Amino acid sequence: MTQLPETGFLRLKQILGDPKAGIPPIIPVKKSTWWAGIKNGLYPPGVKLSPRTTAWPVETIRALIERLGG
């Protein structure tokens, strides 16, 4: 699994991975599945950093990994 930073935010490419950039996924789902999961309450909503930028606190992603059994 990818090493998570101690604090800060993660962008979607860091969570779902980006094969073109060589970034392995932390949560291996497609983008559409991720957004549907947020809508359904399965995945945590992100924090809007700007009108076109959403990120997730590292602590939130750690809690999600624990909840999903990772």
Secondary structure elements and pairings:
Blueprint: E1 9-11, H1 12-16, H2 31-40, E2 47-50, E3 53-57, H3 58-67
Antiparallel strand pairs: 1-3, 2-3
Describe this entry's structure for a reader.
The chain has 70 residues and is an alpha+beta fold. The chain has one domain. The chain is built from three helices and three strands. The protein has helices spanning 12-16, 31-40, 58-67; strands at residues 9-11, 47-50, 53-57. Strands 1-3-2 form a three-stranded antiparallel beta sheet. It is globular and about 25 Å long. The mean pLDDT is 94.
Uncertain residue segments = none
Largest sheet: 3 strands, antiparallel
Distance between the termini: 9 Å
Q: Give the overall average pLDDT.
A: 94
What structural class results from the helix and strand content? alpha+beta
Strand order of the largest sheet: 1-3-2
Shape verdict = globular
Rg calc: 12 Å
Q: What is the domain tally?
A: 1
* Portion in helices: 25-40%
Order of helices and strands: EHHEEH
Q: Provide the β-strand percentage band.
A: 15-25%
Tally of DSSP β-strands? 3
Count of DSSP H/I helices: 3
